[in-house]
Amino acid sequence: KAGVTQTPRYLIKTRGQQVTLSCSPISGHRSVSWYQQTPGQGLQFLFEYFSETQRNKGNFPGRFSGRQFSNSRSEMNVSTLELGDSALYLCASSLGPQGSEKLFFGSGTQLSVL
Amino acid sequence: SQQGEEDPQALSIQEGENATMNCSYKTSINNLQWYRQNSGRGLVHLILIRSNEREKHSGRLRVTLDTSKKSSSLLITASRAADTASYFCATASTSGTYKYIFGTGTRLKVLA
C-alpha cells in the first residue's frame, strides 16, 4: 500500500505570491491533517479535513486555506506569502478522524519564501 | 501554547545506553502518542498509549503514562546510532473536537 504522498517536495516562492500544496493520503484513509513545522515553533496544527469537511482548524490567518476532494486527496493554499511562512508543511492521514487514530505522515513540502 | 512539552530538548548518549525523554501536557487526554522524525522528513508513529493504560512496550521502546501528573515518558533501551532523530509526543484532549497537538520535541543523538 502506498504511503502518504506530498507534492512538490521543495518549493521556492517570493513574498506576495500564492502557493498550493498537494497531499494524497493512504488509500482508504478519510482524514487528512496539515501541520506547519518551523525550528522555533515545532509542529503547529493548521487544519483537518474528514470526508470533505473541515473538522478542525488551528490558529492561523485566513491566508491559509485547504480543501479535500471526494477521493480524500487534499490541497492546502497559502495566499500573499510572507517570509515567516517559510517552513516544512506536513500532511498526515488516518483512517478515521483525529483523536483516537495514529497518523501517517508524508515527507513534507519544504517551502522557502524569499 | 503547546499541549505537550518534551524534556529534555536535546540528549546525547553513547551507543548501547538507554535514552529517556519525557512529555508533560496540560489537559485531560484520550490518548498520547510518540513519533520519531529523522532530519527534515515526515514523522513516523512509534506507539500509542490510551488514558486507561499505564505502560506499553514495543520492541526496545517502553512508554509510561501517569495521568495524575499529566506526564509520559519514552524509554529507548540499548540505543543505536540509527535511533538518532527527534522524538515528539502528541496528545488529543478529551474536551472539544479532538485534534493532535505536538510538543516541540527532543533531539536525540546517539554516538557510535
Taking all Cα atoms into account, the compactness measure Rg of chain A is 13 Å
Helix/strand-derived category of chain B reads: mainly beta
The number of strands of chain B is 11
String of helices and strands of chain B: EEEEEEEEEEE
Biggest contact? A-B, 26 and 24 residues
SSE order and pairing:
The complex is a heterodimer of chains A (114) and B (112).
Chain A: E1 5-7, E2 10-13, E3 19-24, E4 31-38, E5 42-50, E6 53-57, E7 64-68, E8 74-78, E9 87-94, E10 104-105, E11 109-113
Parallel strand pairs in A: 2-11
Antiparallel strand pairs in A: 1-3, 3-8, 4-5, 4-9, 5-6, 7-8, 9-10, 9-11
Chain B: E1 4-7, E2 10-14, E3 19-25, E4 29-37, E5 43-50, E6 55-58, E7 61-66, E8 71-76, E9 85-93, E10 100-102, E11 106-111
Parallel strand pairs in B: 2-11
Antiparallel strand pairs in B: 1-3, 3-8, 4-5, 4-9, 6-7, 7-8, 9-10, 9-11
Structural summary, described in words:
The complex is a heterodimer of chains A (114) and B (112). By secondary structure, chain A is mostly beta strands. Chain A has strands at residues 5-7, 10-13, 19-24, 31-38, 42-50, 53-57, 64-68, 74-78, 87-94, 104-105, 109-113. In chain A, the strands form two sheets. In chain A, strands 2, 4, 5, 6, 9, 10 and 11 form a seven-stranded mixed beta sheet that branches. Chain A has a four-stranded antiparallel beta sheet with strand order 1-3-8-7, with no helix packed on it. Chain B is mainly β and 112 residues long. Chain B contains no helices and eleven strands. In chain B, a hairpin with a 5-residue loop joins strand 4 and strand 5. The mean pLDDT of chain B is 91. Classes of the chains: A mainly beta (114), B mainly beta (112). The interface between A and B is medium-sized, with 26 and 24 residues.
